[in-house]
Specification:
8-stranded mixed β-sheet, 33% helix, 540 residues, 8-stranded parallel β-sheet, globular
Amino acid sequence: MSATRILINGNIHTVDACFRTVHALAIEGDRVLYAGDVNKAMSFAGPGTVVEDLQGKTVTPGFIDNHVHAKMTGYNYSRMSCKDLSKEEILEGIGKLAAEAEPGEWIITGTGWDNDWWEDTSYPSIEELDAVSPDNPVICSRAAGGVTWLNSKALEAIGFSGIDDPALAEYRIENPDGKLSTGCLIGMVRKLFMGEIGSSEKGDIKALKALQDGFFSMGITGFTEASLTGDDLDFYEKLYADGTLKIRMNAAVGNAFGGEKIKNASSVEYLKKCPIIGAYNDKFTVRTIKLMAAGTFGSRSSCMYESFTDNPGNCGFPTLTDEELFEGIKYGTEHGMQVMIHTIGDRDLDRVLEAYEKENAEHPIGELRHRIEHFQIIRGNTPERAKALGIIPSVQPLHGPNSSNMAEKCLGPFRAPYSYPIGQLAKRVGMIAGGSDSPVANASPLAEIHAAVTRKNDLLQPENGFYPELGAMDRQSALKAFTIWGAYAQFAEEQYGSLEPGKKADYVVMDRDLLTVPADEILNIRVLETVMDGETVFKA
């Protein structure tokens, strides 16, 4: 048996059960043939074998991001991103886009603005957008996507008389001074807008190709798409069928449960043909249901036992009732599907665990590997309750340091230390699935691993980390979260996630070792090559 490719003289972290580091890797076609010493690897060489001398470079399994919003991320790559920009910079950028746009053409920016980091932490106003784009409707979403900033033309285009239209009353949001924002709306309004505006197929394809190219350049070979409608999934299937998309996607069906404002007919219909496992040459899987327990810290809409420190009396509100949560979980059990539930607040977390426990009492759910997305605040023994049910915490390391200012303000000094507790979760549950929630945070797995280890973001803030004594992880565990643990969360640990004989030849070549460089230097590591199914999909 001859190898098609042999890597020698490398620093190869296999991430197998013993976390072996070896010096050679033999590949046959799309599979790992051997991982070990150079002499043994070279015994698999044949006339057509390509031998690559790594000269001490580092190799890990391909990275897996377990929480992505793919199309939104792709549009961030192909449109104006608002991440880390001041309000003034965003307004300047939108003004330039408006000057270049046709009259009436929609301007939909990428996501990412965060008023909690601005000098004036109030939500931006409609008047500010109107001033730079008087003739073009504008939609600009906040970092977590739960709050939307828009102008008068956008409201007019979709049938509202203005921000004070009574039909928008339930979507209004308060500024820190208690007065209603004049430019931002919360919650399901994004669904309203995007359903009316739509997007061009050409633009969507461009965005998703940009996503794929960007992810391959970061070493990402697979991801979990956190929520798609049935119409979205039909569109993605076409792109996998014609070969436009090659990256592994594990997708969740969203908006299939809940009231009429939430439920999407195409999602309900698509769910009937699920689970779909390993379609299009093992690139496309849909075996997960996405539910939303409530909102977010940033919009002060997650469900809390005690009110937000900077918004007395507000304890948030549920998106789904207890009955609707249980309905979705029960459907997953009956149809062999995993359930992932967006869960932020401490009251959210108890509600979700209670719903999982209720179903487990009737039908054991451990084999379904249900998930809690974000698991953003610990209360008492919630990690142990999750472990007992086989629940996987799906977490995003950058969220803690990125949101440190906001967490301190909205949670106060007693609750903030127990928010974004990824280190505690990894220890007390035994594993986590790492992700980015891109475009909410930087999708780079190296930036996420750096944040997991240091509790600082990619701008090295906060200077001393965000409660590292509770939230930091060791490097091996952080790497596992984006490789083998991530694969486990996708039921794929026998297929990829480590470099072992018989598994997919998905790997990343880097110029330095993320396990040994000074911690902040992890951010400066360069991805030199990404290989998927034994084929190079990115080379620097």
